[in-house]
Amino acid sequence: MKKAFAIGIVSIFLVFGLLLIFFWYFQSQGFNLFNVRGSSRHSGYRPEYHFAVIGQADDTFWQSVRDGCLAAAEEYHVAVEFNVPRFTNLEEQLKYLDIAIASKVDGIVTHVLDEEKFTPLIDKAVDAGIPVITVEAEAKNSKRHVYVGTNTFNLGRESGKLVLQAKGEKANIAIILSDYIDGTENVPQNLRIAGTKDALKDMPGMTIRTFSASTGFFSAEEVTRRILINYPEVDTIICTSAKDTISAAQVIVDLNKVGEITIIGYDDAPEILRYIEKGVIYGTVVANPYKIGYESIRSLVEIKKNRMTSTYVDTGAKVITCDNIQDYLTLPENTEKGQAER
Question: Is 236 helix (H, G, I), strand (E, B) or coil?
Answer without folding.
Answer: strand
